[in-house]
Amino acid sequence: MTREQRIKKRYQAEKRFRMLGIGSIAIAIFFVLLLLFKVFSTGSTAFIKTTIQTEVDFNKELLELGDVQNPTIDQIKSAEFFDVTYNAATGLYPYSNADEERNVKQLLSGNYEVEIKNYLINHPDVLGKKVTIELTASDDLDQLHKGNFPRDIPEDRRRLNNFQLNIYDNLVEQGKIGTAFSNYFFFHGDSRDPEIAGVAGAVIGSFFSIIICLLIAFPIALMAAVYLEEFAPKNTVTDIIEININNLAAVPSIVFGLLGLGVLLGVFGLPRSTALVGGITLSLMTLPTIIIACRASLKAVPPSIREGALAVGASKVQTVMHHVVPLAMPGTLSGTIIGLAQALGETAPLLLIGMVAFVVDVPSVPTDPSTSLPVQIYLWSESAERGFVEKTSATIMLLIGFLIIMNSLAVWARQKFERKW
Amino acid sequence: MNQKITSKGVSVFYGDKQALFDVDLNIAEKQVTAMIGPSGCGKSTFLRCLNRMNDVIDICRVQGSIEMDGQNIYDKSVDVVQLREKVGMVFQKPNPFPKSIYENVSYGPNIHGIAKDKTHMDEIVETSLKKAAIWEEVKDRLDQPGTGLSGGQQQRLCIARAISINPDVILMDEPCSALDPIATAKIEELIDELKATYTIAIVTHSMSQAARVSQYTGFFHLGKLIEFNTTDKLFKNPDNKMTQDYITGRFG
Fold it and tell me: A289 to chain B nearest CA, in Å?
């Protein structure tokens, strides 16, 4: 082979290598974009709900507030709303029999009575007047309006019958069908009705779990890492501990769920389905990851810093606490955040400790029953209603958003506090 | 001449490997004692015995006695932190803390509670930096990171850090090996000034440096102290043939 041929071959090899690299990255980006496209195209409509302009007559007699002059909020709250809401719902369209009456009422969400009541509580001045309120439409109408239900299939296979389709067309013609920001999705707990189901309970549950996980895992992991890295003698015992920590990091997360079930619920009798138990279980799961990250960042602190401190007469503890740990902080912080991000996306262990329960109320303390974001995704993905499909994707978007924020935070922490020496 | 440190029969083991064999070496008060020898001859190991820096290494074991002012520093009753308060150290590679220049110097006085108040601390920092001949260069930027200084300035900052707690002895482990000739000259000049106040033990690779700065020199080879003499004698008319060969560049 001549010199020229060799040079040419080398250039070709380099080009090939680069193409392979670009190819791998292109494939990775393609799949990420595919995932994001799928999630966004299905999920983006979940942030919008369909509304029906409904005429409501806040008749004082029907509310049984006839003889009260200026009713207080409490009086309004305890008023009788049955007739008012019934009249409003059935007033949407004329009907001729009980079936049709039910069909008309079914066009509104299961929560329309509460919506009407809340409207009056927030606007007490409409008492005794007729007003037009935008009420949330039912899931079926919502999906029809978003174009997710085909209209040309036989009536018995449709969720909405011909009578209801007729009403819908009529309402559209009158301009009474509108869209609004879906406040339910962000501020409501779970529900059997997709149109009023929300992620608030799951978000708060996840938040509590992550905070508890952080409070438990970070100090324990940091102390364990500091002891193992800086103080522990290098012998068989510490070797075994090290191997076991590495092993634990690779243990399937569901095993930690079993541990939580057996020990936290079984032995200690902590409340089932709560963020408290979820957080403790997740902290057990993330501990090895965070210990490994902390040890790596402690190890990365140059020995010369330790020597410098020892040489001016700092004790071992002073050396570690004044110099080594602060210098390792960027690494420990980013390792912790990445561990927490892992915990945030974890589903399996939470299923076992009962965080998979159907919880309507938004938890207010960590000992309230709750779900978490990934479990909520799991729950909704199993539901039959069409409305939950878009909610599932929307929740995935939310979860991905949180994960991106946390991982960016980890990168930021590493860069911001990084020191050069 | 007063002997500040007397060592007798010092042997050091790293695990099974013996690094130092039966070294007897005395360090005279307020003089500069240099240790020379080829790489791996044990001179740094010996230096690190003097402030028990070898304690950090798990597998390291020290035998024999090293007495400072008549007290065996390896005695169980000796607190290693108090020992290092009396025996400061400067390392081969400048290793200022990644903190401000001020904090670098104030750290030692701080943990030992030497300063009475802020003004006193300012004084200590200023005198230390002045003694280390770096005050003029850094007095306007005490709050800036010590790691931002040049190599020679960093090393003088480390010297200031070492003298901030007012030790009796300063150990220097090849303090100029990472520095350029101009910075080296400054450090050597500084060592000359410091010996009025402090006892200095210096390990160096450079024979000319040992000849320039020290009054006594020990020559190490393969873990043994081959010859210990006044610097004058050792470089002009050594007793040992091996020393003669080394200083004339026949090996090493």
Answer: 27
Residues A327 and A372 in one domain: yes
Question: What is the C-alpha separation between A283 and A271, in angstroms, rounded?
Answer: 17
| A156 in the same domain as A140 | yes
Whether B252 is covered by a domain: the verdict is no
pTM, 2 dp: 0.86
Of A302, A313, A419, the CB nearest to B81: A313
For A83-116, what is each residue's pLDDT tens digit? 999 999 998 999 999 999 999 999 999 899 999 9
A304 vs B: CB within 8 A: yes
- Check residue A322 and report its DSSP letter: I
Considering chain B, what percentage of its residues have pLDDT values greater than 70? 99
How far apart CA B228 and CA B215 sit, in angstroms, is 11
Distance of CA A296 to CAs A283, A293, A331, B237, Å? 19, 5, 8, 53
Inter-chain CB proximity B111 and A312 less than 8 Å: yes
**Residue A234 with chain B: CB contacts under 8 Å:** 58
pLDDT at position A314: 93
Q: A32 and A98 share a domain?
A: no
End position of a domain, from candidates A158, A175, A196: A196
Q: Is the pLDDT assigned to residue B250 strictly greater than 70?
A: yes
B187-208 pLDDT, tens digit per residue, is 999 999 999 999 999 999 889 9
Q: Is there a single domain that holds both residue A119 and residue A262?
A: no
Query: Is there a contact between B205 and B177 (Cβ–Cβ < 8 Å)?
Result: yes
Distance of CA B236 to the CA centre of its chain: 25
Task: Enter the tokens of residue A400.
Answer: 């991905």
Which CATH number characterizes residue B181's domain? 3.40.50.300
Task: Please state the domain count of chain A.
Answer: 3
Q: Supply the ipTM of this predicted assembly.
A: 0.91
Chain A, nearest residue to B158 by Cα:
A308
Q: Do the Cβ atoms of A311 and B98 come within 8 Å? A: no
Distance between CA A333 and CA B114 in Å, rounded?
34
B104-107: long-range pairs with CB below 8 Å, 24+: B104/B146, B104/B157, B104/B160, B104/B161, B105/B129, B105/B157, B105/B160, B105/B161, B105/B164, B106/B164, B107/A309, B107/A312, B107/A314, B107/A322, B107/B161, B107/B164
Confidence of residue B55 (pLDDT cuts 50, 70, 90): confident
Kindly report the number of other CB atoms within 10 A of residue B202's CB atom.
27
Mean pLDDT of chain B: 92
Count of Cβ atoms closer than 10 Å to residue A372 Cβ: 31
Residues 321-360 of chain A with CB under 8 A from chain B are: 322-323, 327
Question: What are B216's strand-pairing partners?
Answer: B33, B230
Q: What residue numbers bound the domain in which A28 lies?
A: 3-44
Q: What is the pLDDT of residues A54-64, one digit of tens each?
A: 999 998 888 88
Per-residue pLDDT reduced to its tens digit, A308-366: 999 999 999 999 999 999 999 999 999 999 999 999 999 999 999 999 889 999 999 99
